[in-house]
Write a structure and sequence with these properties.
Blueprint lengths: L1 E4 L8 E2 L4 H11 L2 H17 L1 H17 L14 E5 L19 E8 L8 E3 L4 E3 L6 E4 L6 E3 L7 E8 L2 H8 L5 H7 L2 H12 L1 H9 L3
Helix pairs in contact: 2-3
Length: about 210
Amino acid sequence: MFGVSFGGGQQRPSNFLHTNHDQSIVDEVRNTEVVKAIARRVDFLLACYFPNLHSLYTNVLQDLCKHDGNLKPNWEGCCFAAASLNFQNAVTFSHRDYLNLLFGQCAVYSAGSFNYKKGGHLILWDLKLILEFPPGCIIFFPSAMIRHSNTAIQDSETRHSLTFFSASGLFRWRHNNFMSDKDFVAGASRDERATWDEHRRNLWQTGLKLLRSM
């Protein structure tokens, strides 16, 4: 994984850390024109189908990087804060990405050489859907909300994936005026805490509004 994240023990938002060797590989892949084009395409599609959500992602990432000069986004023109790259024949078991924004979207780009009729399907367990996922396609879905996995391919085939996501902790940090929930609650007045609690209770309604395409 590479990019900006917050959660899993971090004290504040930061870029994922790698060894010098791994970082050189990440930089090489991230800076290829093909990958940059995919990132721009993902951003464009999110803006088309979920314009309100795209605005939220864009504004939060820009605010975070402006507030902390140590934060480095992966690409210009891409609102997702982080990405994960899987080479060869990666297969995931059924799971939810609990650290991502609950009502947000993750984007998955499929690549490689495989028969998508026989393998590499995306399974959305809660929706009882099995989707063909051909190379060169991009799928958006709320990975924190829907249990998902993918099927294996043949031993002679290859399948790669590039996943774009933003951790929910980044949105909470920004909403708390650049501090953690713990620090905000510790210093909040009674009125501030009441407003904060009400925001949390109504967050599902906020999510529904952001997911509207028009």
